[in-house]
Amino acid sequence: MKHKFGLGLLLAPLLLTGCQGILDIFRETIVGTGEIVTVEHEDRDYEKYTTLNVKDLRVLSSRASLKVYSSTEEHKIIVKAQENIEKKINVNYSGSTITVAGNESEEYKTESIEIEVYGYTFSKVFVSTVRAWLYEGTISETKAFLDFSTNSYAEAYNLKTNDLELRSSGSSTAYIPITAPTMTSLKCSISGGSSLIVKAKDTSIDNTKLNISGGSSVAMNGNTTTLDANLSGGSQFVGENFVADNIEATLSGGSRLSSQVNNKLVAELSGGSALTYYTSNVDLDITKSLSGGSIIIKGKLPEDN
């Protein structure tokens, strides 16, 4: 008996992995040729651009680099790459957004791809597949949203943003030092095995909200009035040097959270999760719900160690 296999059957396993999985398998490799060239891009209406989107610059065995500098004299974008690769990189100015992108269906075997951005202040930055440095003065001090995805690495220096949202996904890593004396809001959404370090030792934050999932981790210091934390899928928050007046935490799937708390702790833990709190308040108000072998532990304050 003869069996006929249609194209749909052959592609079924790929479809199960989703569209991104198919792109990863069929992505074309472009080999860099020629010397490294430097091309400048400028738009005179620089003040209207508030969003930067850098994506699809997949360099084999490495990452493309993005450096965003503050400047009062220059307002431009510089692309440095081998000649045939540079022609593949599109710099587009549209509305309030600057997009620097390769081709989604390509990956690049090349010595390096370097993107330099001068003279803009962004309230939104999207970074995918690259290694990025966002230097002081390049991020809005009023409100900002920073998104790091698809195996990116990012460092942002001396942020002074009053209302800051950070998102990291797809095994990305971000290091964020904050130097603002006060902040109204800090929101962190971390997923897909990503990691985030926030250094805010001398910053007082009104409201801090954490959504951490998929085996991701966040480490943070600083002070906040309220900490609202939702952790799942074996994720963790490391906050032995993070001080919250009040904490409301929901942990599941073997997640871990540690933090100092001054006044009130409300915790709902399930699936073998654990919460460690540190306090000098003997009358700390604690409300807890534990299931599935979860535990809450009172730890020793770091300064007492």
Write a concise keyword list for the protein shown above:
7% helix, disordered N terminus, mainly beta, 3 helices, Pectate Lyase C-like, 2 domains, 23-stranded mixed beta sheet, 305 residues, elongated, two-stranded parallel ribbon
Shape: elongated
Number of helices: 3
Helix/strand/pairing category? mainly beta
Low-pLDDT windows of residues: 1-20
Q: What top-tier CATH class of the largest domain fits best? A: Mainly Beta
Total number of strands: 25
For the biggest sheet, the summary is:
23 strands, mixed
The average pLDDT score comes to: 91
| CA radius of gyration | 23 Å
The CATH architecture of the largest domain:
3 Solenoid
How far is the N terminus from the C terminus?
A: 75 Å
Strand content: over 45%
Commentary on this structure:
With 305 residues, the protein is mainly beta. The protein has three helices and 25 strands. It has two domains: 18-124, 3 Solenoid (Pectate Lyase C-like), CATH 2.160.20.120; 139-305, Pectate Lyase C-like, CATH 2.160.20.120. It has a 23-stranded mixed beta sheet that branches. A two-stranded parallel sheet has the order 1-8. It is elongated. The model is unreliable at 1-20 (pLDDT under 50). It is 7% helix and 53% strand. A hairpin with a 2-residue loop joins β6 and β7. The relative contact order is 0.09. It starts with 6 loop residues before the first helix and ends in a 7-residue tail after the last strand.
